[in-house]
Each structure stands twice: as C-alpha cells, then as structure tokens.
Amino acid sequence: MPHVIVADSDGPSLQHHAGLLECARYHVSRAQDGRSVIRAVNNQTPDLILLETHLPDQEGFEICRRIRRTSDVPIMFLSNRARAEDRVMGLKLGADDYLSKPCAPAELLARINAVLRRAERARQPPTTTISSGPWTLDPVQQNCTVTSGKVVDLTPREVHLLSFLMRRIDRVCTTNQIVRHVWGYAGQQARSIVATSIWRLRAKLEEDSDNPRHLITIRNLGYKFEA
Fold first, then answer.
1. How far apart are CA 41 and CA 126, in angstroms?
2. Closest Cα to residue 186, out of 224, 139, 222?
3. CA 75 to chain centre
4. 3-122 CATH
5. How far apart are CA 103 and CA 51, in angstroms?
6. 3-122 and 130-225, same CATH topology
7. For residues 68-89, b (16+ Cβ closer than 10 Å) or e, as one string?
8. CATH fold of the domain at 130-225
9. Radius of gyration (C-alpha) of the chain in whole angstroms
10. Nearest-5° angle of CA 87, CA 118, CA 176?
11. Where are the domains of the chain?
12. What's the pTM value of the predicted model, to 2 decimals?
C-alpha cells in the first residue's frame, strides 16, 4: 500500500484529497505546514508527496527545493496557483507533476498512479560499474569519480540517467528516449524534466557547468556523453 503525504493548509481541501486517496487504498499522512512535511519525509519514507504551494510557514516551492537536496521521493503539486510560470517553477525545482485545483478525482488518481509507476522504474538503476573517459560511475555505491579524482554522490535517478548516457558514448539520445528509459514515460513535460536533471548533473560533475565538456546538449534533439 503506497504511502502518500498530503500537504495543504486548507482544511477542507486537505480532508477531501486525503479521503479520496484513502478510498483508493493509499496509506495517507496529513500535513498542514512545511515543518510537518519535512519531518514526515525524514521519518516515514513516503512513496509520494502531494503538495500545495501555499503553506503557512514556507512556500511549497521551498519545501520541494529542500527535499530535492537529499531525496528523489516523487513530488506532485496540487495547487490553486495555476499560472504557467508556477508550473514551470515547480518542475524546475524537481517536481514530478503539477496539477491545478480543482482537479477531477479520476485524473488526480491516474496522475498519481503514473508518477508512482515512473518512480518504481527509476528506483531500479543499473548495478555494473561504467568507466568512460575520465569518469567512473559506480551504481552500487551511487557515486561518480570525475576528472579531478573527486568522488561525487548521486541520487538513484541521477545514476540511472548518467548510466544511460555513458553507455551510449558519443551517441545522441533524444529527450523522449531518455525520459522513457529513466522515468518510464514520455509526455508534454519530458523536455523540462530531462533538462532540469541534466542541469543538476552538470552542477555536480562538470568542472565548469556553464561550459560542459562531457554532458553535451544537442540543440532541438537531446543530449550525449562525450569522454
């Protein structure tokens, strides 16, 4: 039974969505402020967080940013903020989906199921060490040794993404190929999801993330790894 944290400062909205998920046989924890969300993530290891952007002590965007520093737990925004820039912000910060209120129950449940399926696939990274040029990826230890000899810790999803590219050295991998392999689907948000993940990898691994030597963007196509 998947465990979902529903975080919303609006009591009726919180009870409505939590009740909907409980009727669909999810285990649900309720949170009405950011501190409760962070505490639940640290103590309960949820399978998904359903997050409102408006919380009394801090914005949902900041909570998402904090969680993404250490965890790949799926995050879905369900918010009254429906502007395009809010959706883009949520996805750039690492959210897996962004829905606007009101949302039809059937659609909400379908989107949650889709995110959980993708997360399950992402939690199954490769297990064989890959060396390509100056980089060595160790999926078991979840780290990569880079040009300087520094060992950098990665999340499971980052391991999966980097492995996909390193195994296809000098080959262009389209955005849809990447997102299908790493996230298990392809949709309208694929470009933003992959671009954000590549940006995070560059920030961790490249000597100059603004002028990457190894994780290369191929304009209007996708990305490739160069040794």
1. 25
2. 222
3. 7
4. 3.40.50.2300
5. 14
6. no
7. beebbbbbbbbbebeeeebbeb
8. Arc Repressor Mutant, subunit A (1.10.10)
9. 18
10. 70
11. 3-122, 130-225
12. 0.61
Sequence-distant (6+) residues with CB within 8 A of 147 are: 134, 135, 207
* pLDDT tens-digit map of 76-129: 999 988 888 889 899 888 899 999 989 999 999 999 999 998 877 655 667 789
State residue 124's pLDDT score: 62
| pLDDT-derived band at 185, boundaries 50, 70, 90 | low
3-state secondary structure of 78: strand
Tokens representing 34 are 């950011």
Q: Residue 60: name the closest of 43, 42, 79, 82 by CA.
A: 79
Q: What integer pLDDT is reported at residue 184 of this predicted model?
A: 65
Of 69, 130, 78, 138, the closest CA to residue 102 belongs to 78
Say which DSSP state 226 is in: -
